[in-house]
Amino acid sequence: MTTRLSNFIVVLIFGGFILYRTLFPANSSDSISSTIFNLSIELVGGILLYGLLQLFQNINQLWFYFQTQFLLKNIDIRLSIAYLFRIKIDNQYLLVKSRTRNYFQPVGGAFKTLPSSEKIFKKLNVKPDRLIETEHGIAKGDLRVYVKGINVIEFLEWFNSKEDRETSPWREFCEELISTDILPWRQFRYIDYTFEGVVQSPIITMDSGGKGMFLFEVYDLVVNDEQKPVLEELLRNGNTDKYIWVDDYLIQRLGHDERIKNQLHEIAPHTKCAQNLSWSEK
Fold this sequence. Notes:
By secondary structure, the chain is of the alpha+beta class. Helix content is 37%, strand content 23%. The protein has helices spanning 3-23, 31-57, 62-71, 118-123, 152-161, 170-178, 228-236, 248-252, 269-276, and strands at 76-86, 88-89, 92-97, 104-105, 108-110, 127-128, 133-134, 137-138, 144-148, 192-200, 204-205, 211-222, 243-246, 256-257, 262-263. It is elongated and about 95 Å long.
């Protein structure tokens, strides 16, 4: 039995008793009935207070709270949680070719979980998405998962706690830029970056027909004096099939240049999300 159901049953039983005793008061000598009446008020009051606290805690996302806790509480919602880098030189942004799709996007990828996350996954009945395939096979440990609507808020609270999961964006930076020889390892053996914000989508209908939502943590690469000349040279060398440099104009139009009426590049929609720090489906 879920906590929500047990609370409902308690409120129903003891709330009914409160109503009954309010309409038909017990005799002043009936101490047992008076004690039960007082306990009922405390129990029901406590549960209602808990409900109000939950409501106030989610006052800034009431529709999201209503969706997850009521409308979609038993529906599997696909959550995709990733980090993205904005890498900028001379008002040009570096994008890399997706390893799975035919478009360019910011450096980054899904957060990974640690083995100790099994406890929270079991508690919230989280199911990994086993349909994402990379050049290394089916992605494992990625925070692309299915969560029942009623557990989504608690799952996001777990993610925000940073427990039992990857917390640094270094891994994807290394895999997409160092391991691919786009950037030399010596100058980029360590990197600095600033956290710029979180982009969270509403719950949307996916192309597959199911429900889903996206969450991106966005970082700006802080380039040091050793790294800046390398990136400037990469920019001068021009675009390749591995990466491109584009300005904000092209990012906002996802690669379509209206000035020459031509699609110069295919740019992923989430590139625009990272650029604007706000959700956009296209």
